[in-house]
Amino acid sequence: MSLEITETHACNCGHDDAVPALDVRAVPHAIRHATVFGALSAITPGGAMDLVAPHNPLPLLAQVEQREPGAFEVAYLEEGPEAWRLRLTRR
Known about the structure:
Residues 22-90 form the DUF2249 domain. Pfam families: DUF2249. InterPro entries: DUF2249. By secondary structure, the chain is of the alpha+beta class. The chain has a domain at 46-91. The protein is built from 2 helices and 5 strands. The chain has helices spanning 29-41, 58-67, and strands at residues 2-5, 20-23, 48-53, 72-79, 84-90. It has a 5-stranded mixed sheet, covered by helices on one side. 13% of the residues are buried. Residues 1-10 have low confidence and may be disordered.
């Protein structure tokens, strides 16, 4: 698991270098959602976090919406096949 400010580079992959990224691909499945919920709780209004997942995290997004209805805007930055990168911005 890594939660870090990404370094500046010119990859043109659509991510913002000032947005923290949480790569959950190495997080054990049993604690993956809890890890994301903890990270999202630290995001202040107007702030964002990039989530990197091994698959399209639709069940996780449904849980986020159920826990905090309307709190996050979700934008897909990358859609597989090896990783999905989503930007979650707190409204």
